[in-house]
Amino acid sequence: MNKIFEKGGKLHWLRSTADAFDTFLAVPATVTRKGSHVRDAVDLKRIIIIALIAVIPAAVFGMWNVGYQHSLAVNGPSATPDILANFWYGFLKVLPLYLVAYIVGLVIEFGTAQIRGEEVNEGFLMTGFLVPLIVPVDVPLWMLAVVVAFATIIGKEVFGGTGMNILNPALLTRAFLFFSYPTSMSGSSVWISLGKNEQLVDGFTGATPLALDGAAQYSTSIWSEFLGTIPGSVGETSTLCILLGAVLLIWTGVASWKIMVSSVAGALLVGGIGQIAGITDIPCWEQLLLGGFAFGTVFMATDPVTSAQTETGKWIYGFLIGALCIMVRLFNPGFAEGMMLAILLCNTFAPLIDHVVVTSHIRKKFRKFKTA
Amino acid sequence: MAQNLKDTILNPILKGNPISVLVLGICSSLAVTVQLKGALVMAISVTIVTGLSSLVCSLLRNTIPNRVRIIVQLVIVALMVILVDQILKAGESTYAIDKQLSVYIGLIITNCIVMGRIEAFALGNKPIPSLLDGLANGVGYGLILIIVAFFRELLGSGTLLGFRVLPLSYVPNNLVILPPFALILLGCIIWIHRALDKDLQEK
Amino acid sequence: MNTNSNIYTIIYTTVVVVIVAAVLAFVSMKLGPSQEANVKAESLRQMMAAAGIESTDNLYSSKNAEVLDLYAANISKAYTVGLDGIQNGELSIDRSNIELVSGLKAQNKIIKDNKAGKDNKDNKTATLPVYVFNSGVCVIPVYGAGLWGPVWGYIAIEPDFTTIHGAYFDHESETPGLGAKIKDEEWFREKFAGKVIAFGKEEPFCLAKNAEAEGADNAVDAITGATMTSKGLNTALNVWFNAYESHFEKLAKETEPEEGQAEDTVAEDIVTEYIVVENTVAENTVAKNIVEE
User: Which residues of chain B are at the C interface, by a Cβ-Cβ cutoff of 8 Å?
Assistant: First the structure.
């Protein structure tokens, strides 16, 4: 690193920032000198890059879908299916969200690292990439800025930065947005991007299928739910693209397949019970295609920082997320979607789950030891 | 003696603040801080109750049978709380605020600060210092209440004491109105308080 | 003196309790009347706010005595009716002795018991108040359970006995910023003016999500984010409107016997509108499907 940033140098106070750019662009020359350390090609930077690649299909499809839903809303079913134009429209809509999320988040990240005199880490790269995908596309930019700042400070920096946070920061952003400005986060008009003077065509409701199922007046084809050509937040609609990402995450070992599988199992169980008990008309497997379930399970629940760490704990943690999500959908009339609440709740329980798993394991070993 | 009295008054407001240091009386500070007006009335009520009950208990401190002292204290505190509640209900201009505070005036009796100060201070001290200690603790409690309520009303409704401060174009933040945000604000206040006062930092 | 002996303890506690009780009894006696006056003035304010006699702000900034004056000057008669719609009592409207029906909770229970077909043990008959103002507007109360505590309100009805003239709602402990909007937000109250109570239907009024979009004139949109409060208020409105139904139908027939037929057609219109509304929903779904394909 340049001399002026070293201790005693003129710009020493800026060393966190300089260091961040330095290691981001080049491999650092410093190595651990004493004690043992594990040599592995996988570090935080690489994990995040793989995770980013895994989200890209959903993000790209999401941008196209924004344009597609918009043209459906304005022009009706006769809209020309121009793939490029739709994508371009969505891209222009989503780009400002990305700019705002990244600028606000990174300024705070650099600022706190600077204050603490620590290295800047890459945690926010992932958070910032996810945030625009899980909020309504037409959310006012200042609102996004406020909640991103709030979630980053209160949800992450207060606990000590990336790796120390209890709650998933991207999801926390959405939660803050949801509770702070409920009118711009629910209802049927927020999920479709509309220009100022544009009018909805007759008969187009714009509500997400999940919101409408509460009123039981909607039927979408399973195929479009799977492909993702339905209204919703940018990244969550296409189960297909999310599955592609899931395959990459599991193949590279970045995300835990146990959490994903048990989450699906939990959702199927509660969804099945609800179906048998006649609470809902939605078949339990269709619950997996609707709303943010797939996105949350693959990209949010598996966040290595906030999920359970023990292997048994991961099964319990995932199962609880799936079960709670469907429970909220079925039993709480106030919330059409339960994924956000389910994951955040289980985030807070993750340390407890780990604790129980570890102590029960120790007790078991201890008993064995005693009998022997 | 003068130094002592000064400490008695200043300590509960700063270094020994019942909310931000002793973490007592959190429940009511979440519930009544949505609007500044309610918080002000609550702060005054708690100050009066802690002051008067400390005074009365201190006057009676040598006569209270030790075995039933908690019950006797409770009766005295309850008397003060009911008096305050009844007076608020009877006043023409305070009636609306009393309605807004609903059960929380009555719940002052469960506020740990009141009983805590009687047990810890009033039973072992002369009436005048006890009165001051009670009042000062009420003020310390009220101060935090008012800070929290200030931010919650400003950000949550765009008003202060019912008057519009922020322009109408300000979109009220609903999270601020919900009780969890009071907890977040309290956390921030404790954070700032500890950052400023080195004695309070835990090693 | 041994303050720990049993006898001392007993005497001491007795004396303390007696003194405290005496103080409280005295205070309660002294303050009781002004507390009651406050409660009564509050009800009158809400009633007159619903009837549109004065603006809510003015009513709340005026003194109790002024409120009583205003009420006495504007009220024409007040009486109570039973669930059969027949008048069963008079309420004094004299300035010095204004009578109101205060136990709305008890009335609510009688209405509900009656609906459920239960005999109420005390064999109480409902005494539902009707306050008729000089302008011909009738004000009736509604009462029900919100999310955290009771919600209640006053509905002013035009002399045609179906159109709502104005409304005022209050609550004990709904969430500020969400459920509390039923009281705080003037636009919510104003939405009720001009709406129609569809007496004769099982649900004479509809306060629900997106209810206005369906175009019925007896519907008001629920408050976003306050689902449970809105639901509670909706139940309160419907239960009480049902309870008053026979009385207002009787009144409508008495005052305008020749227009009785017209009244029926109005009711029919509402029914047809409802069917149309349902059709629109169906069409929406169809249209949506087309869009999807």
Answer: 34-35, 62-68, 71-72, 75-76, 78-79, 82-83, 86-87, 89-92, 95-96, 99, 102-103, 156-157, 172, 174, 177-178
